[in-house]
Amino acid sequence: MGRYKLLNSLFSGKLETFAANKTPCSIIYAEEDNRQKHTLGIITDFFQKNNKDFLRMDNGLEIKLETILDVNGSTAIDFDNYTVNAFIIK
Question: What highest taxon heads this organism's lineage (predicted)?
Answer without folding.
Answer: Bacteria
